[in-house]
Specification:
The chain is α/β, with parallel strands linked by helices. It has two domains: 121 residues, Rossmann fold (3-Layer(aba) Sandwich), CATH 3.40.50.2300; 102 residues, Arc Repressor Mutant, subunit A. The protein contains nine helices and eleven strands. The strands form three sheets. It has a five-stranded parallel beta sheet, with helices on both faces. Strands 6-7-8-9 form a four-stranded antiparallel beta sheet, with helices on one face.
Length: 233
């Protein structure tokens, strides 16, 4: 069996799909292309992939709908490819679980670099870290089980995708310290901040909705205006 990383390309433009396929396979990936968003869910039930390269504008279902379905099924990086790069579109996608964006037209070498960065970061987050794996972090009624990647609020388990979990864990391991959006982006996403604060902001908001008693008035994950975010312990 091949040990190559597998990329699912969801793209209805045949020319773009072929370019993505050619460059990714030249970089050592295996690829599989589907052109219709309605086919993704059934495919993921039968086959496994290491990353999804997802077009926003698709026939049948939008990239947003497909992203939400993927997030309900598997925890793998989703890199959205879109000609629509307005902040509102990015915020919508991030709110549904997109890990990264690249705009059309794109440089194929940048696309490959983004795919590599997201897969490496995902693998790093899943790698065993012995010093941390024995820890259980407690904050108020919150328990973060580092070894099993689980979070409980009281007796209820809270599901956090890998980026949300890693962001919460990092802040919990460094309590009462203010981190800027730039610092958090580089720490969790693994490459230099490029000026889009929406990524960190949306992930912080999603975490708050799950761990705070009142996400509009957070007590655990606090915004320090003009500076960044702090986890209070």
């Amino acid at each position: 069996m091949s040990d190559k990383k597998r990329i699912l390309i969801v793209e209805d433009d045949e020319d773009i799909g072929m370019v993505e396929e050619a460059y990714l396979e030249a970089a050592g990936f295996d690829t599989f292309i589907v052109s219709d968003g309605t086919k993704v869910s059934a495919l993921l039930q039968k086959e496994s992939f290491d990353l999804v390269l997802l077009d926003l504008m698709l026939p049948g279902k939008s990239g947003y709908e497909v992203c939400r379905e993927i997030r309900d099924m598997v925890d793998i990086p989703i890199l959205m490819v879109t000609a629509r790069t307005e902040s509102i579109d990015k915020i919508l996608g991030l709110g549904m679980g997109v890990d990264d964006y690249i705009g059309k037209p794109f440089d194929p070498t940048e696309l490959v670099a983004r795919v590599l960065a997201n897969i490496r970061q995902h693998d790093r987050l899943l790698r065993n870290l012995p010093e941390e794996n024995t820890q259980e972090i407690r904050i108020a009624d919150l328990r973060i089980l580092v070894n099993s990647w689980k979070v409980y609020k009281g007796d209820k388990e809270i599901r956090l995708p890998n980026r949300e979990f890693e962001l919460l864990k990092f802040l919990a391991l460094n309590p009462n310290i203010v981190f800027s959006k730039e610092q958090l982006f580089e720490k969790i996403w693994g490459y230099h901040y490029v000026g889009d604060s929406a990524t960190v902001m949306v992930h912080i908001n999603r975490i708050r909705e799950k761990i705070e008693d009142d996400s509009k008035n957070p007590k655990i994950l606090e915004t320090v205006w003009g500076a960044g975010y702090r986890l209070n312990k």
